[in-house]
């Protein structure tokens, strides 16, 4: 049985230009079909579009028979030392159709690509309901199907995957204490709940598709501003700011008095944390007087 491969153009987004194949001759056929659609020939090496090719996950974890991936937000406030904040909330992006690993369905992008931009074009797409599920809802679903230890381990492995990718590029990144980066990590779980990194987006989309999506992203950006602390209200030793948890600061940050190793998918108590931080700030200002 030939494995399935997925090819992605490095200069495009929202699922454009992605295709699946099982043989190198399929790439030649795809190139010829692209030229027949009016795309220019790429005979000159300078004009050739670069692609990333990955082995396709043929046995993804399914919910209701549908494939999904996870969009997770990671804030890096410095590379020297490496300082990483992980947002508790994120979302799973679902396909609108039941998954099939049949080789005859490889050209069906609605079946294999969970990008919202792709799913919006699917027949019968419900714009009000959307195709997303918040990660805390997904985690509760998984806890109803698997042992808590198995689910906790899977989410902790996602967190470790994030840290390791950043450690791998740390020495190659320009450090500026006045800058920060918000990354969008795309991760997929296979049928054994093992996480696989799909890609890291340096400019993740922050557009909202539904009212709940709008509320979530606005809240995350509000918390992001609190982390970078333009108004200098923080003490500097916080490990949680809004919905962001610090997971690395020159070394691993371990949750204190917690039954989980990662807060990803846990209850997002951002409003309570913000209110407590505001009270402590007012108290410190009054005390300084």
Automatic annotation (TrEMBL):
Gene3D superfamilies, alphabetized: ATP-grasp fold, B domain
Gene Ontology molecular-function annotations: ATP binding; tubulin binding; tubulin-glutamic acid ligase activity
Pfam family, one: TTL
GO cellular component, one term: ciliary basal body
InterPro entries: TTL/TTLL_fam
Gene Ontology biological process terms, A to Z: microtubule cytoskeleton organization
Lineage top rank: taxon: Eukaryota
Keywords: ATP-binding, Ligase, Nucleotide-binding
Family: Belongs to the tubulin--tyrosine ligase family.
Protein's name in the database: Tubulin--tyrosine ligase-like protein 9
Organism: Hemiselmis andersenii (Cryptophyte alga)
